[in-house]
Every structure is written in C-alpha cells, then in structure tokens.
Amino acid sequence: MPASKSVTGTALSPENSVLTDLFDRTISYLRLSLTDRCNLKCLYCVPEEGGLPKLEQEDLLSYEELLRVVRAAVSMGMTKLRLTGGEPLVRRNVMDFVNQLAAIKQLRDIRITTNGVLLSRYAEDLRAAGISKINISLDSLQPERFARITGADCFAQVWQGIEKARSVGFAPVKLNMVVMRGVNDDELADFARLSRDTELHVRFIEFMPIGASSRWSKDTYVSSDEIKARLYDLGELIPVHRSETDGPASMFRLGAEAKGKLGFISPLSHHFCDRCNRLRLTSEGMLRACLLHDAETDLRAVLRRGCTDEEIRETLLAAVRSKPQGHRMEERLREQEGGCHGRMSRIGG
Ligand code: SAM
Fold it and tell me: Which residues take part in binding [4Fe-4S] cluster 1 (predicted)?
C-alpha cells in the first residue's frame, strides 16, 4: 500500500485512486457476478453435454459481504459497478441489495447486464433505485432461434422487458449480440437495421474462447472487421465520438439518420487491454484481474476468516497489482496454449 495515499476513511476519486496496476492503468470499474444461476442455458455458457454444477448458497458471497467489498473498493477510488451473473435478477431479494448499493454515495455509476427475462418485472424498480444503464444480451431476433440458443422459448418476454426498460426511461438501452458463425451471423443486417430504425444501441461482440465447454472455434469466431465488411451494402458506418458509456466498443451510426448506434466490441481482434480499467468479482468471491486469464485471488477466504476492512483493501490492491499487461489470447491460441477455463456464468462476462 503506497504510504503517501491513505485509504482509510475518506473516499478517493479516480484521479487520486490507489487502485493502479503495474502498467499504470487505474482500475475504477468493478464487475460483480451476483450468482452463477441463470434462467437461460445459452449455448456459449452451458457445455454440450448438459448442465453445470451449481454453487451452494453458502458458496456465494452474501449481500453483506458484497457490500463490505464494494465499500472498501469505493474508498480506494472505484466509481463504477456492474451487476452481472449468471442472471443477476434471479438472485433472491436482489432489489434490497441494489437499494443498499445505491446508498453508497461515492459510487457514481451502477449498471446491470441481464438477459431481460425478468426485466418487465424489475425495470421500474431498477430505474427508481438509480441504476444508470442496462445492457441486455440478445443473440437472435428470431423467436425460434432464440429458443434454440438459450434453451427457453421466451423471446417475447425478453422483448417486453426491453420495451419496459425503454418506457421507464433507460436510455440508451444496449443490446449485446455475441456473433457466432453458423448460429446467428445471418442476422447481422437485421440487428444493424434495428440500431438504425430505433433508439436501441446494438453491439456486436466477438465470440471469445472461454470455458472448457465453450463451442468457440476458429470456425465459429467472426471478427469485427468481417462483420463491418458484411454490413457494407447496408449503408455508411459513420464513426461517433466515444462517450463514457460506450466502454470498450467502437461506435458508429448506420447512416446519418440512424436513431440508435452500432458498436463493435473486439476483445480478440482489436483488444483493449491497454485501457482496461476492470476488476471482476466472481460469484464465489474470487477476484479476477483479467477476464481471459484464470488467475484469481480468493477474497472469500479473506472475508470469512474475519478480516478487517484494511485487509479487504490490501487484497483488492494485490489483485489489481496481479493484473497482466494483456490477455495475449491471439498468441496463446496460435501457440496452442489453449483458451481460458473460467466459467462465464461465475465470472459474469
Ligand atoms: N445473464 C446475463 C446476461 O445474459 O446478460 C449476464 C451474464 S452473461 C454471462 C453476460 C454476457 O456475456 C452474455 O450474454 C454474452 O453477451 C457474454 N458472453 C458469454 N460468453 C461469451 C463468449 N464466449 N464470448 C463473448 N461473449 C460472451
């Protein structure tokens, strides 16, 4: 812990954050996986041979433990938080937790990533609690295909959730589509048109080799450059100035009249490791400094041996200091070192 910067008591802004890694990146964005459980079984999360063993309730960090961690992180300069999972909205009493998070003053920005299945029920409360942005994962606009990808016939319910989120004032509502060749890549134009004809923001995400069970292969992977080339005939992609809410996506409008935006998230072909500001906390309480590296720091063990807040801060800092310079996934794949074995349902994407 640098002696010149006290982290006790006062909250720090990102400008004087103590959460700086060895490559001079300031880590200001914490992603919490609230549960490994999900009401969908998306084919990139669930192994071909079937279900994954679920964590027991006591394996998950409790809301009290999570709040302690978030308060400690905020006191070190963390300002942005994302709730993910599994499906964050299936965790019991999730709104009580969200309301307690929202009461943490220095936490400027709380967001959620959801599959949208329960959004009709929760959108209003999430908005009232002060959640600033919603990302919804949507990998197909075709109800039957949606059911095949997710294992649940609930496209209409998700679409209602999207509409509800818009109607209660979330703007923009972002849709994330993982592009998989032979699975949904024939819908690129339909998704792009959606971003032109509505205020929805659509972001194409490159499929990543995560999880021993992932169906990722060089054949299913489609690069952002290829996606752009395939949209060429639809109209001009006009670059838009990146706003703070765009994250790692490069953003465009499909034609000058487009109502929404179109984004490309390219973790493999144009990785953004040099400006990565993220730390992840998995649903079983492991700090993960890089999505695509399996090294984790066991924060749950620290919490459960009755630690002080200072020890939480030290553990957060140690995890930040262990952050690799980059994921090197292209080289790892080239040299057949393999992908990464973490489970997205526990890490949270
Ligand atoms: N249940 C929530 C949802 O569906 O948005 C949050 C968790 S889910 C793991 C978060 C998102 O991670 C997925 O919808 C998908 O966009 C992304 N994701 C999962 N596996 C991926 C992979 N192999 N490559 C790229 N993105 C992936």
Answer: 38, 42, 45
Low-confidence ranges of the chain (pLDDT < 50): 1-11
**265-288: pLDDT as tens digits:** 999 999 999 999 999 999 999 999
CA atoms of 264 and 185, how far apart (whole Å): 14
pLDDT digits 0-9 by tens, 143-186: 999 999 999 999 999 999 999 999 999 999 999 999 999 999 99
Q: Whose CA is nearest to atom 18 of ligand 1?
A: 349
Pairwise CA distance, residues 34 & 118, whole Å = 15
pLDDT of residue 13: 56
User: Would you report the helix, strand and coil content of the chain in percent, each value rounded to 5?
Assistant: 35, 20, 50
Ligand 1: distance of its center to the CA of 16 in Å? 32
Locate 34 and state its tokens.
């609230």
**pLDDT number for residue 130:** 96
Best substitution site from 137, 271, 327 to test ligand 1's pocket, by max atoms within 8 Å of Cβ? 137
Q: Is 44 in the pocket of ligand 1 (CB under 6 A)?
A: yes
86 is in an annotated binding site: yes
- Domain residue spans of the chain: 29-347
Question: Cα(336)–Cα(153) distance, rounded to whole angstroms?
Answer: 37
Annotated binding-site residue? 140: no
pTM over 0.85: yes
Cβ-proximal residues to 258 (8 Å cutoff; 6+ apart), any chain: 195, 196, 238
Q: How far is the CA of 210 from the centre of ligand 1 (A)?
A: 10
Pair 84, 34: CB distance under 8 Å: yes
Q: Decide whether any atom of ligand 1 lies within 6 Å of the 139 Cβ.
A: no
Residue range 29-347 in CATH 3.20.20.70: yes
